[in-house]
Amino acid sequence: MPLLRVVKPGMLSTVQDLGRLGHAAIGVSPSGACDTLSLRVGNRLVGNADGAAALEMTLVGGEFEFDDDRNVVLAGSECETALHAASGVTRLHAWTTTRVRPGDRLEIGPLTSGARAYLCISGGVATTPVLGSRSVHVASGLGGARVRAGEVLPLGLRGSDARFLPGAAHRLVVDAIGRKTLRLRLGPHWRVLGKHALDRLMEQSFTVQERSDRMGLRLSGLLDEPRIPKTLETDGRMITEGVPPGAVQLPPGGEPIILLADRPTTGGYPVIGCIAAIDLPACGQLRPRDTVRFEHVDLSRSRELLRELHRSLDSMLPPVEG
Amino acid sequence: MHGPKVGVYWISDSALRVDLGEGISPEVRRRVRAAYAGLRGMSHPAVLDITPAYASVMITIDPLRLGEPDALLGLAQRSVQESLATAIEAAHRRLVDVPVLYDERVGPDLAHIAAIHGLSVDEVILIHTGPVYEVDFLGFSPGFAYLSGLDERLATPRLDAPRTRVPAGSVAIGGSQTGVYPQATPGGWRIIGRTPLRMFDASRGEPSLLRMDDRVRFVPINAARFAALEAAG
């Protein structure tokens, strides 16, 4: 069986696909790639369906060895990559589809432009799905764990041919995932903010803290102590509700959290707004010390932006069938 | 036949919410259960997941497959109103017994809870194992069930700083709620015991031991029984 050998695991590398959906009612988080746009594009470049599983690497990549012929690409952050092959060492860039041969070793160093990069391999990573997905939920261990040195990951049957990313599509994707102004739709609990805090939310810069992970980005930049109305309160906390994708929570202490793929399904902190779906991949690329701002967007504009992006992308690099 | 008016609205481009009432009450919970059942029966290509909670149900969607937003909104509204109007009583609700070892070793906060409430440890155990609890919904982590029915004599505030790791199976009290941690995760609730049962196992046909609508009893066991059940599980 063809395998990917993990020589070095990197800082935090996990198998991710487009998520584990349909089990929220038993407390199962969606998980999946934090930057789904990069995963989709990377998969298309190596001839995989959008939802094929890849290796999500965080901040520092790993070192991997191949034992058969594969097309590979690094999608997401730019990273310092070297391909060690029989013919010598080649420097690789993100978004450039490359052929690897048996015995080749890919050495991925620090990620330079964003927090995450996806090693997309033709055939996909073929670990055993759990509850319909290969995604790993780090906190609970559902679906597996971070990869370790010496581990081997099975690879699937190769699908369609590799493709290259047209220049215009490259610019579209890099711009989308590199955004630092996040479009936010207020609600459902924006009223826990006082008037001045609401203004500040749209004017202030926030800094991503070190204590951020796949569950969420902790932002520093004090906003406001949330004022929870009595009707929504129990035990001094807000009544627990489902947590939407892109939720921006305001916990006691007043420093917002942007929730990511491993977010809990329910939560008791007020959600002051939701990041527009189009900007969720950019959230998955934010690194500690990055600064961000919020910009208001309404529902119809938010939908329009997402549709436009995907229409453009699909016209230049269509998804692979099946 | 008309049911009560429900609030169904978009909270973002990727989620709809259904509000079933204000606050926490058995009536609102009953409506959440009915609405959840109705929404699960909905068929629409954009629906990804359905998350019930105390007084609301959230529907997560894929905005790329949405089509006309109002069509889904209307479908959700009709599904909920029909299910509320039908008023099917859940005649068959499971009663699940959860065996628990209550002692200081697996329940480090047991003595603390007894002390602050002016009770003996035996009284705490008696009071905790008295009620038939109801599963309101699951969330926080896979298989974590929010239970209602805790005797208010045991209501205890959460820890100021959560423990970084609470052992899997820990039985805990947080505020006026009680529950069992299915996995070893950080946890801010007060730990009073441990169950040898696997509350969540992804390899089982039904991964979660508990589901919404279940009724739960805690049954005290001794260390020998704990070891036997743990080995059998």
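The longest helix of chain B spans residues 69-86.
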